[in-house]
Amino acid sequence: MNSRTIVTEIAAAGVLLGSYPLDWLIRQAEQYQWAPSSEPVILAHGFGGNRSNLLALAAYLRLARFDNVTYFQYPRWQSIDDSAAQLGHLIEEKGGESGVHLIGHSLGGTIARRYAADAPAGAVRTLITLGSPYSYGQRSPREIGIFGDDDPIVPAPIEDMLQPAAFARIVVLHDIGHLALIFHPEVLRIIGTELRANRASETAHATTT
């Protein structure tokens, strides 16, 4: 890990640690939210985190006119299969006929991938993972996987070793570690572009033209 990445990771870690007390404020604010106008976006935090870690990402999504944001939280030591089943219950509750956009950081992305692998048709509109553990033999043909090239926790995959349809697309960002992926401007740009392309109104328009 180079010195630039170390500084960025320390700054990201400081922001994440400082975000934990905000969880109470987020819960209070949710009581006064108006009826959302977009299909649901579900954010899944990494191992040991909580939804307040994704506050900046949620704020960006709302600025991008995705105002129906839900946080998926799961017990730290719960199995991936059990967490994926728990995520499925949340998607059934929130998704309705429109389906959901899934964005997961680290372990949260692995859980989202596990759910999406066997999800009913139309349940998942978008799947984006940020520095999420993977396997070279996986099949996740709709997943956009974003990695940092200086991530000591989840190194970016070697694309030539992946089986076909392991990902829809892989993006590797330079001089970026694990935690900073949540805040990186290029990550936010990719997320915004993908969600806009896959939003329900755009899909309906494409099928009628």
Would you kindly provide a written description of the structure presented here, covering whatever features stand out?
- This protein has 209 residues and is an alpha/beta fold.
- Helix 4 packs across helix 5 (107-117).
- It has seven helices and six strands; from the N terminus they run ααβαβαβαβββαα.
- The termini are far apart.
- It has a six-stranded parallel β-sheet with strand order 2-1-3-4-5-6, with helices on both faces.
Keywords:
209 residues, six-stranded parallel β-sheet, single chain, 7 helices, disordered C terminus, alpha/beta
Count of helical stretches: 7
Range of helix content:
40-55%
Alpha carbon gyration radius: 16 Å
Number of DSSP strand runs: 6
Distance between the termini: 49 Å
**Biggest sheet features:** 6 strands, parallel
Largest sheet strand order: 2-1-3-4-5-6
Order of helices and strands: HHEHEHEHEEEHH
Shape: globular
Low-confidence stretches: 204-209
How big a fraction of the residues is strand? 15-25%
Which class best fits the helix and strand makeup?
Answer: alpha/beta
The average pLDDT score comes to 85
